[in-house]
Amino acid sequence: MSELRFSAACERNKGPIVEVLSQLLKPQARVLEIGAGTGQHAVHFTEVLPGLDWLATDVPENLAGLNARIAAEAADRLAPAVALDVAHGPWPAGRFDAVYTANTLHIMPFELAPALFAGASQVLDRNGLLICYGPFQDDGAHSAESNRQFDLMLRSRDFAMGIRDTRDLDRIARRHGLIRQADIALPANNRILIFRRAQ
Ligand SMILES: C[S@@+](CC[C@H](N)C(=O)[O-])C[C@H]1O[C@@H](n2cnc3c(N)ncnc32)[C@H](O)[C@@H]1O
């Protein structure tokens, strides 16, 4: 069997993130994850919060690796991940209490941010939460030199990537009935932005 893909960053940030999730989510919450990557977050969060009904998704080309981790480490509590490319959908049927996404907004082209917010709004229950983890900037300013360097590195690798601005995300969110209600600082200059579906 080939080795599972591994993210050292996930190992560092999963503890601080799950602490926030434990305060935000009801014990049996239905959560849809976008861009689940290696699956380390899904595995850890459902280990710490076993009542969560968590559905991991990612683009089709990442599904095999993601499902290999789920099968190896969390087959008892996680359904197999399903394909979801925010650019095309389709979004899973059903309603969710929360949509969770980590480190995706600076990877996918900014043109896809509206699709992510629109899709989340469509699958969220009223008062449901869109929870976005990662680095963000505000009104064109980075909060840390390390984020500025990271942003430069991303843009030099691919011009479509880059740290997103909360002003732009708030505007897109509002268009889809999502209002930012919290901004939580986490280690390494990352944050959790929480948007609530208003209607
Ligand atoms: C930097 S990785 C983050 C993975 C994981 N969430 C984490 O925090 O380690 C970015 C993820 O976004 C996913 N992604 C990129 N474009 C996407 C799209 N159009 N729709 C859905 N997911 C996408 C990638 O496949 C990848 O899993």
General description of the model:
The protein is an alpha/beta fold and about 200 residues long. It has one domain (about 10-100, about 115-135, about 165-195): Vaccinia Virus protein VP39 (Rossmann fold, 3-Layer(aba) Sandwich). About 35% of the residues lie in helices and about 25% in strands. The protein has a seven-stranded mixed beta sheet with strand order 3-2-1-4-5-9-8. Strands 6-7 form a two-stranded parallel sheet. Strand 4, helix 4 (about 115-125) and strand 5 (about 125-135) form a beta-alpha-beta unit. Helix 1 crosses helix 2 (about 40-50) and helix 4 crosses helix 6 (about 165-175). The model has no long low-confidence stretch (mean pLDDT about 95). It binds S-adenosylmethionine (SAM). S-adenosylmethionine binds next to loops.
Task: Give the gist of this structure.
This protein is an alpha/beta fold. Helix content is 36%, strand content 26%.
CATH superfamily: Vaccinia Virus protein VP39
On the 0-100 scale, what is the average pLDDT?
Answer: 97
Shape descriptor: globular
Discrete helix count: 6
Distance between the termini: 47 Å
> How would you sum up the major sheet?
7 strands, mixed
- Rg on CA atoms, Å: 16 Å
Beta-strand fraction estimate: 25-35%
CATH-assigned fold name: Rossmann fold
Query: What hetero molecules are bound to the protein chains?
Result: S-adenosylmethionine
DSSP helix fraction: 25-40%
Low-confidence stretches: none
The total strand number stands at 9
**How many domains make up the 3D coordinates?**
1
Task: Write the element-wise H/E pattern from the N-terminal end onward.
Answer: HEHEHEEHEEHEHEE
What structural class do the secondary elements suggest? alpha/beta
Strand order of the largest sheet: 3-2-1-4-5-9-8
Overall CATH class? Alpha Beta
